[in-house]
Amino acid sequence: MFDFVRKHTKIMMGLMFLLIIPSFVLFGIDGYNRMREKGDAVARVGGNDITQGEWDAAHKAEAERLRASVPNLDAKLLDSAEARYSTLEKLVRERVLAQAADNFRLTTSDSRLARNLQEDQTIASLRLPDGKLDMERYRQLAASQGLTPEGFEARVRRDLSVRQVENGVTSTGFAAAGVADVALNAFFERREVQIANFLSSDFEARINPGEADLEAFYKANQALFQAPEQASIEYVVLDLESVKKNISINEADLRSYYDQNAARLSGTEERRASHILINAAKDAPAVEREKARARAQELLQEVRKAPDSFAEVAKKNSQDTGSAVKGGDLDFFARGAMVKPFENAVFAMKKGDISELVESEFGYHIIKLTDIKAPKQKTFEELRAGIEADLKTQQAQRKFAETAEAFTNGVYEQSDSLKPVADKLKLEIRSAGNVTRKPGGGATGLLANAKFLAAIFAPDAIEKKRNTEAIETAPNQLAAGRITQYVAARTIPFVDVRASVRERVVTARAAEMANKEGAEKLVAWKAAPASAQLPAALVLSRDQPQNIAPQILSAVLRADTASLPVFVGVNLGPRGYAVVKVNKILARPASAEPALKQDRGQYAQWWTAAESQAYYGLIKERFKVEILVPRPARGAADAPVPAAG
């Protein structure tokens, strides 16, 4: 297909003109886009589609957020089918709650919005010493999220409105102490048991299968003895490091950068200050704040008259108990260590100065700047290596987009080899053997990237051994690869897996024997309980499982205790069988009041979460939510998911 397109470019352009332009004439560009988006729907909320593109964008944003917060997070987890489906469910939930807020006419008033913004610690840090908001930095904060200040405020307003949908449930959730205690007592109930294990491993020595048995098992279970498809590949990676290698910085630029940034690069200035604090909480009544301000003003006049008495006045009057005993001394600190109004005042003062009153969220400060520690300026030679690395990084970031375009075009236009694009961009061609569609346990980096492997094992790449397209495998990283040798999946010959076949046959038959003997003992002991040969008793509960197999614990807790003792049989699968005798029920141990209160609080949280989830389920039904893509099977990291349109 691609060969035909390359060889008949003009014909294809003519056909596209004839086919596409009339559709624009008949439907218009908006109509054409709507038709396309409708076909790309992956979910529907209240009759409104969520498109593949919206899903892709949401997952990309979610993945970037997680990478930023957890830098060591395995990239395979972010690219898995389960992770993508989780993002879709989150996107659906956001749309459901947003539609509910609109339908229920839940809005956020200007005063509520203003109060929320004032309480936001990030925004509070943008205030100037006079309490006014630094609008330039506020615009930068909004721009970092791709928004204008107006857009940022609109988003906060919308989020507050949406939050009201569930607040009626989450903010009123509670559980009466009596009800909580009944549930918790049942949940943490203990049971005294005796367990007899009939383990498969104890029966294996009795089993000696013949050659015919092994061959019969092999023929009946060939799916167990498959060698996965494998490939030897070549690949190239374009990232910031590879772009940096081709960048050289001339001496003049290095020296110019040094001249402009020497002070910053030499270190951080630190200042030492003492202060007197009169407490005044920001939410205190105006009368109390005014009283605190007046007291601070009196102390300011006192230390202005006698600057040398500052330490003594601080010891007697400062309400910062940590520094008052040291005469108000706060030792040396750099920018970013103190609240913004305090920091701004300190770094605007001269040594020996006493400030005017400085108001912060803690109250009113009188500050004395006692020392300045300016860093010693480093020489050009001392900073040269760091400056060169910084400038290369800056230029690589600017040049990456341009290089990425050349990379993308190069791997497509000369699709039978990676050498042209590698030579052009001075990239290393790497190779790897025994690469599988599902990464092995020791695979790392690109060879463990599900998106890259899916492209490598795409039909066109396998059949024609063409380059894959340029694939974004991480932020600022593109990769392309091609198969040089391919071996299809195949059944491994019996002779090569004979030992494995024998092991499976022995294990299966041993499990059968263990189950048979265990089941027989269960019947016999139920008929004659006194004949049961059982080990010492154990006490089991959900919070103290004693390293017992989950199947046994579950069976113990589900056993009918109307008439004790009671015998229960538990099939442990390949491990064998267990017979459990439940002797008696033991009440939950009494807890100290603090622990009991904590348990009740935890139960109330569980109950509230369940109510919230049930309420969300009702809203989903009301808005006729449909998710149009199948939920991936658990553990299906490489299960196919709809690709970006």
Describe the structure.
With 645 residues, the protein is an alpha+beta fold. It has five domains: 1-39, no CATH class; 43-177 and 590-645, Triger factor/SurA peptide-binding fold, CATH 1.10.4030.10; 189-203 and 496-586; 230-250 and 383-488; 268-373, Chitinase A, domain 3. It contains 24 helices and 17 strands. The protein has a four-stranded antiparallel β-sheet, with helices on both faces. It has a four-stranded antiparallel β-sheet with strand order 10-5-12-11. Helix 5 (81-103) packs across helix 9 (149-170) and helix 11 (211-220) packs across helix 22 (494-527). It is extended. It starts with a helix and ends in an 18-residue tail after the last strand.
Distance between the termini: 19 Å
What is the residue-averaged pLDDT?
84
Taken as a percent bin, the fraction of beta residues is 15-25%
The secondary-structure class comes to: alpha+beta
Overall geometry comes to: extended
| CATH architectural group of the largest domain | Orthogonal Bundle
The CATH top-level class label of the largest domain = Mainly Alpha
Number of β-strand runs: 17
Number of structural units classed as domains: 5
Largest sheet: 4 strands, antiparallel
The CATH homologous superfamily of the largest domain is called Porin chaperone SurA, peptide-binding domain
Number of helices: 24
